[in-house]
Amino acid sequence: MDERFTYDELIYRGRVADFHQVGVRMPGGRVVRRDFVHYGGAAVILPVLDDGSIVLIRNRRFAVNEHLLELPAGMLNDGEDPLAAAARELTEETGYTAGRIEPLGTFFTSPGSSDENMHAFLAQDLSNGPQALEDYEQITVEVHSDAAVRERVREGTLHDGKSIGALCLYWLRKGGI
Predict the structure, then answer these.
(1) How far is CA 12 from CA 16, 53, 57, 176, in A?
(2) pTM over 0.85
(3) How many C-beta neighbours within 10 Å does residue 24 have?
(4) 78 falls in which pLDDT band (50, 70, 90)?
(5) What is the pLDDT, as a whole number, of residue 163?
(6) Adjacent-strand bridge partners of 68
(7) pLDDT of 29 strictly over 60
(8) Do the beta carbons of residue 22 and residue 36 sit within 8 Å?
(9) From the CA atom positions of the chain, what is the Rg in Å?
(10) How many other C-beta atoms lie within 10 A of the C-beta of residue 77?
(11) Catalytic residue list
(12) What is the pLDDT of residue 3?
């Protein structure tokens, strides 16, 4: 059992995450029941074309019943290196392959209830090719200027957290948001 928890009850083992009820000891000694989602990690990729424009996808997300504008991303296969996952997901979802992929940083997506760690990467020197979507995926590729992506974040039409996180890391690296 994980030492963070006084007890850990597996409620459900899912395809992409495990759901637990756990006991967390508070500073005063009281044990509080919490819901905890264990998720194996994921990669989000920021593909930037030579002219500085950004490759985005429009992805059907059933949980929010919306076609979200977002960066390509995907979960890590068991034991998979995050960089390898980033390269794989970039090609699967957009058709692009990168001549260069470098880390932007990592962040937790929902640390109040999950241990999901998102690995963000910048992909450059892109070559276009065919997508390799899973048969259930409904993804279209869109290319937007950097200024247009910033405006979509500002106005709230790009409101996917992992994409905003990766974009902020990129814009900070470039010299400011």
Answers:
(1) 11, 42, 31, 43
(2) yes
(3) 14
(4) confident
(5) 98
(6) 59
(7) yes
(8) yes
(9) 18
(10) 12
(11) 137
(12) 80
SS (H, E, C) 30-97: CEEEEEEEEECCEEEEEEECCCCCEEEEEEEEHHHCEEEEECCEEECCCCCCHHHHHHHHHHHHHCCE
Exposure on the CB side of residue 76, measured as CA atoms within 13 A: 17
CA dihedral of 73, 89, 139, 155, whole degrees rounded to 10: 30
pLDDT digits (tens, 9 = 90+) for 110-150: 999 999 999 999 999 999 999 999 888 889 999 999 999 99
Joined together, the tokens standing for residue 19 give 């759901």
First-residue to last-residue Cα distance in the chain: 42
Q: Take residue 31 and report the two structure tokens written for it.
A: 């044990």
Structure tokens at 50: 């030579």
In angstroms, the CA 172 to CA 107 distance is 15
Q: Which residue bears the tokens 């029941």?
A: 33
